[in-house]
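Hi there,

I know you've been waiting on this one. I reran it after we fixed the sequence typo, so this is the corrected version. Both the input and the resulting structure follow.
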Amino acid sequence: MLQLGFASGKLTYSLALLFLLFSCTSENDPYTGWSVTGGTKEGIRYSSLTQIDTSNVTQLSIAWTYHTGDADTVNHSQIQCNPIVVNGVLYGTSPQLRLLAIDAATGKERWVFDPKRPEGKPTRLDFILNNNRGVAYWSDGKDERLFYAVGARMHSIDAKTGKMDKSFGQEGIIDLHNDLGKDVSQLYVSSTSPPIIYKELLITGTRVSENTDAAPGHIRAYNVRTGKLEWIFHTIPQPGEFGYDTWEDPQAYTFIGGANSWSGFTLDEVNGILFAPVGSASFDFYGGKRKGAALFSNCLLALDAATGKRIWHFQNVHHDVWDRDLPTPPALVTVMHDGKRVEAVAQPSKSGFIFLLDRKTGAPLFEITEQPVPAITELEGEKLWSTQPIPTLPEPFSRQRFGENDLNDLIPDSSYQIVKKQLSGYKYGHLFTPPSKAGTIFFPGLDGGAEWGGPAVDPRSSIMYINANEIPWVITIADVARKNALNETLLQAGQRIYKNICASCHGVNREGSGNYPAITSVDKKYSAAEFKTLLSTGRRMMPAFSHLSNDEKDALASFILNLKSEQERQYTGVSRPDPAEVPYTITGYNKFLTPEGYPAIKPPWGTLNAVNLNTGKVEWRVTLGDHPDFKGKGTGTENYGGPAVTAGGLIFIAATQDNMIRAFDKSTGKIRWQHELPASGFATPAVYEVSGKQFVVIACGGGKLGTKSGDAYVAFALP
């Protein structure tokens, strides 16, 4: 009877009651709390709490609001943190990456740790301030520790007092620049996703540059008490290691970076298996220096959590030149497959695929076929892969093709004709259309399909709930500017260096692109000395360029800050040989937009989807968000942050640019409740209980997609 219910993809009311009758008691139910980012180490963002359900969710109101007081509206600060709750205390981070301890029932502050003022002593931030998506908690029954990263610095903090644990690393900190096997002290290394704890191991990944100056993205485990390195897994294999021969250049491991697990991990604690999604190797859009399948880039890795040894891997994109990192840790699920319950791992992708694999072996549960893809390129030295893995099931949760028939039909005809003409000049039509100098449509875009918010899964029904973006982007390849054989002025050198390392983010004309701001007026914010310091330290999404020489920094300053008195001075810098240097760059991370600034594709632009992992079928799909210029037209909006699903029949999600948090009926996708937030909640909600009262809390940091920055955590509960 139960098997028939799963096979049909529909859980009847009577079956749901049976599940409730035979479910775990609250004493051993792992889903009543939220002590780990994502709810549990399975990464399914599920709560078994039922106090709030479909019958009373309309009564939800604000229980408390906590203001961090450190939003930066000028530089578009954000809060992307999914907070955790342990022993009635909520732990999260602020826009300036302060660590917060808040009474989870009342919102009253317990303590705050400020990384800029440890132990009350002011220090200069000489590291990049990134976003932070969560913290990790560890206890041996006596000591309690919180671990979280600020840039490259992993902190150990006493959970009771908010003081640094000086016995960990160097005075409470380990520098993630270290222990990578080579000197990357001048390169960008950071961590935005929380580490994960296995017994007494702190396991962490990193974010690195996506250009040729990328550090390697190796995965490391440290002792939680001492900060001593316990193991390292080389995501770019070294001689003698499995996967080394998948790189055509035997020296690639010495100069290629990336292949980093930036989005975090999930963990099967019973079997001791760590699951690590790995991104692409650098440079993102040209692979002439990294030919081959290039393991373990673009792989889901299953590692022995105790030793870091590889158990299995699955590569979701071969020789990636589309920036198709695996954007979120996989969900650990149990599904009904061929009449049997199977422990599986479900990995969503930016492309809108879900790869459903056996948890212990990596074998696909549904067939995955290697299908031919366009493999002809105009780029010198490039060698594209001729096939890519395409799952037959589960069904994709977002559109994957974009053409003339898909152009936005909500705009005036004059705008439509402009967009149509632009499209005619681009390369498009296939999920794997190669990058080009004419410009190639990347769809789904660079931000998904799936993004770092990840999915929620109901373990009773094995239905995955996942939000998606459906925004086309345009990536245009450009030749790298070479140093003039004749002497350059400082201005000419600055323009050349800008084109090679800055234009890919800030645009050819400094107008900004994608999520990166315009810098046409940066001369009004920084002096030459301050600007050079910024190049050395970085800030938020901007990596540090500390590897640049002083001459190169002077040249950039003369151009970007328009220093007329310096621009005619002779440039004396010399070109340095770089084995990772590539002949191409990009002109910016550009969304394909209409003249009015809307996505050039027909709505929906953001969706929430229910995918039955037992059958592989999409159960329902609804729009997510409401664009202010098209209210009631079902457009959806871009969205960042994920859902949480509950046994009360609800999916809670914010994530949209319209400042709303919503509760959807998980059976139908119908909106049951919504509430306006003080700023957009580009984060994932947490669901927890204190003293018999259920709460839903969301970080309201705004700052993306043109929204105002916020500084609040808002908790909702029944009256």
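Quick highlight: The chain has a mean pLDDT of 91.

Best,
R. S.
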